[in-house]
TrEMBL record:
Belongs to the peptidase S8 family. Residues 491-748 form the Peptidase S8/S53 domain. One of its GO terms (molecular function) is serine-type endopeptidase activity. The chain crosses the membrane at residues 39-62, 74-92, 98-118, 139-159, 171-192, 204-226, 232-252, 259-277, 297-318, 330-350. The active site is at residues 500, 537, 713. Keywords: Hydrolase, Membrane, Protease, Serine protease, Transmembrane, Transmembrane helix. This is Subtilase family protein.
């Protein structure tokens, strides 16, 4: 028995370490921009099965005690089941429906095998195995108590989580049902009888010892269910549920039925929570902000652990007494009905009702032909170019999307057409995706990631740094303060557009610069009518471009804003919502394809975001958008990314596109920061184009305060601000993107690169550190 305890501790520690370790490796790869290791989970699975399966096999064969051998047999079966359930994790998290379908199939097969093998292997059949067919049509009290326990464990997920799409939810239910059946097959009544044998019967021993053994088995099952971290809560909630199952098994021995069904309900509903009410792509460090998805998953897991502990104690005290009465059907039925009603009330009231699944981003084959658009410059020339580009884009979209839109309306599939990229976002799952991919006008279909709602909005991120006293260090480093004082240029007459988490329009450093009108703010996320920001990232970046009081490079420039990154996770459609608004702003409630006003387009766009594969983009998803903006004479500036110092780490669209100005980061000592992404870009292109201060940059934060942040996100708006100073000093340069790029790169100051070059120093620092004073002087000349 001591050997069994040691092996149980070994299995527990090994399972927890491999699951948390594997998840952390996944998160590290994601945050650093490295490719996902497809072999990671299969290798970890094989390793755990080998390291845990070998001692359990010995435990199942060698001891003289039949009870100890039974323990080994159950743990061995659970280890093998874990191995089978874990293999579908080789599928990428974005293919969640495919994962759930595969999990359901694997769990169903494992359940059938367990029924055939485990029941025979442990001991002969027992009256408590639920085989009393005369009562099968009528739920027993034990079954009802198992249902009640499962609903209690599901309740925290209903409160804090949100369902995905319809097919996703149905597949999650199917997978959870199969896993629940597998748990019942692995823990048959014959297994429980080993711990209750004796005269008189010892149900207390069954609960304590049998609960421990079952807890280890359920730990292994939970470790195999869910991907990308969604399995971690089950490591906390399922083991204590083993004691509740033991108490139900004790009651089932007296009622002679219902134990297997109770186990299936309790485990199945426990598994259904994280499978259906969370998106595995959101359970990670990418959304690690205050009270984000990971926080609420931790809350649900903690609540689930508490519920499981209460169930174990309550069921153990009331059901596992030597002379205990049989549980009453009325009491059990009332408990199950009460929890069922409570779950429904919480789902509709405190929860986030509705389906919030992913959508599909359908890219059409034909993209607008923008060749021959006159390269006119200056204010009037730029406006004419933008109008010509807008008209060509809309004409192409209306003509080529007509048949597809008609079919989507016929099938009542909700959809949103786009023109900047000739594409349509469609509500649909794998079947719709297959149908769309086969249509002749469709080039490819991508998954458009949608974050699920949170139970409580994250608090507004506010700064805690003191207000600046004059131009801050980064503004002085690039010489912007000299442009104001010596050249008298502040950016007046130029408009900078920001697509980000939003903007605090009432901030003292930004309020006076808002362009105003009914077409200077758009929020496709929350439909706010005035500039606002909860995350702070957008306020900070725009402040570095046009903020007053010493934080912004071009404090005299005007600005417009759009929300495309409300929770640090977007998708190609949301990014296009804002980029289209920047090309042709429209009033609230307007149709981008008919109500756009290209004459009101901002001159320069600052973009401190990227669209990786996780969010649904492939390398070419937004390529037509940046090409169209460039054709319209709008200067587009993008952050290189924060996955350095690895070479070839500029890999998220649109940062590597040739028609955008890509910006890396340096610190106070003019040294390239470790986090600044390096080139070369995919295809061998030279990126970044420039670097700017990006370490410990002070700027505006929501609520009127200030904060210090680091990243290429902070460097990017400063280059946009320098371009605004140039165009303000010489309005004839407006829309002249080649000449503006030449001046910026020709006047940049050298940045030392020591010990790394990525094949060429330009792949680390581009042309060098942007020099506002030299660039504006050159623009004037």
């Amino acid at each position: 028995m001591i050997l069994a305890v040691l092996i149980g501790l070994w299995i527990t520690g090994l399972t927890v370490v491999t699951q948390f370790g594997g998840w952390l490796i996944d998160q590290f790869l994601l945050l650093t921009g490295l490719d996902r290791l497809v072999w990671l989970w299969p290798v970890a699975t094989v390793g755990l099965v080998a390291l845990a399966g070998t001692p359990t096999l010995l435990l199942a064969l060698l001891p003289r005690s039949r009870t100890v051998r039974t323990v080994g047999q159950i743990w061995l079966a659970a280890t093998l089941a874990f191995g089978a359930l874990s293999l579908p994790r080789a599928l990428p998290p974005v293919q969640h429906e495919a994962y759930l379908a595969t999990l359901a199939g694997v769990a169903g097969l494992a359940m059938l095998l367990a029924h055939r093998l485990v029941g025979r292997r442990v001991v002969p059949s027992d009256p408590g195995d639920g085989s009393n067919r005369s009562r099968a049509a009528r739920p027993t009290p034990v079954t009802l108590l198992g249902l009640a326990g499962g609903l209690a464990l599901l309740l925290p997920w209903v409160w804090v989580g949100a369902l995905g799409g319809l097919l996703e939810t149905l597949l999650a239910a199917l997978a959870a049902t199969a896993v629940g059946g597998l748990a019942a097959a692995l823990l048959p009544a014959a297994f429980w009888s080993r711990f209750a044998s004796g005269t008189p019967p010892r149900p207390g021993r069954l609960v304590l010892v049998g609960g421990l053994v079952a807890g280890v088995a359920l730990l292994l099952l939970g470790a195999g269910v869910g991907q990308s971290g969604a399995q971690l809560p089950l490591l906390l909630t399922l083991p204590p549920a083993g004691f509740a199952l033991a108490a139900l098994a004790a009651a089932a021995r007296r009622t002679a039925t219902g134990g297997a069904a109770a186990a299936a309900w309790l485990v199945g509903l426990s598994v259904f929570g994280p499978l259906a009410w969370t998106d595995p792509e959101e359970v990670g460090l990418v959304l690690a902000g205050t009270r984000e998805t990971s926080f609420w998953v931790a809350v649900a897991a903690g609540a689930g652990f508490a519920v499981a502990a209460v169930l174990a104690v309550a069921y153990g005290v009331t059901l596992a007494r030597p002379q205990g009465a049989r549980p009453g059907r009325a009491v059990a039925g009332v408990a199950a009905a009460t929890l069922l009603v409570t779950t429904g009330v919480v789902a509709v009231g405190l929860g986030q009702p509705g389906l919030h699944g992913e959508r599909l981003f359908v890219v059409l084959r034909e993209q607008a032909d923008l060749s021959g658009v006159p390269a006119t410059t200056g204010r009037a020339g730029r406006d004419d170019r933008a109008t010509e580009v807008y008209q060509r884009l809309v004409e192409t979209a209306e003509r080529t999307q007509a048949d597809l839109r008609r079919e989507l309306r016929r099938f009542r599939l909700d959809h949103t057409p786009y023109y900047l990229v000739n594409a349509i976002e469609v509500d649909g799952g794998p079947l719709v995706r297959t149908w769309l991919a086969d249509r002749p006008e469709v080039d490819r279909v991508l998954v458009s990631q949608r974050v699920r709602p949170l139970p409580v909005p994250a608090p507004v991120t506010q700064g805690d740094a003191p207000a600046p006293r004059g131009a801050d260090w980064n503004v002085r480093l690039i010489g912007a303060d000299r442009v104001w004082s010596e050249l008298g240029v502040t950016g007046a007459g130029v408009t900078v557009g920001s697509s980000d988490s939003g903007v605090d329009g009432g901030h003292p450093a930004l309020a006076a610069g808002f362009r105003g009108g009914d077409d200077s703010w758009f929020d496709p996320w929350n439909a706010t009518s005035t500039p606002s920001d909860r995350g702070g990232h957008g306020t900070h970046t725009l402040g570095s471009a046009v903020g007053r009081d010493g934080v912004g490079v071009a404090p005299g420039a005007a600005w417009t804003g759009c929300v495309n990154l409300d929770r640090n996770l977007g998708n190609p459609a949301l990014y296009l919502d804002c980029l289209q608004f920047m090309l042709a702003p429209f009033p609230p409630g307007g149709d981008p394809l008919t109500d756009g006003r290209p004459q009101r387009a901002p001159d320069i766009l600052t973009n401190s975001w990227g669209c990786p594969e996780l969010e649904g983009c492939d390398p070419g998803a937004l390529r037509p958008a940046t090409a169209a903006l460039a054709a319209a004479g709008i200067l587009v500036v993008f952050a290189a990314g924060n996955t350095g110092p690895r070479c070839r780490s500029i890999e998220d669209s649109p940062a590597f596109h040739p028609d955008v100005l890509t910006v890396g980061a340096v610190d106070r000592q003019r040294r390239v920061t470790d986090f600044s992404s390096r080139g070369p870009a995919p295809g061998g292109g030279a990126k970044p184009d420039l670097v700017a201060p990006g370490a410990d940059v002070l700027s505006a934060m929501p609520g009127g305060g200030y904060g210090v942040l680091s990243g290429t996100s902070m460097a990017t708006p400063q280059v946009a601000g320098v371009a605004a100073l140039m165009w303000s000093a010489n309005p004839a340069l407006i829309g002249d993107l080649p000449q503006t790029r030449r001046i910026l790169t020709a006047t940049a100051s050298p940045v030392p690169v020591s010990g790394e070059s990525c094949g060429d120093e330009a792949h680390v620092v581009g042309a060098g550190l942007v020099d506002a004073y030299a660039a504006v002087r050159a623009a004037q000349g």
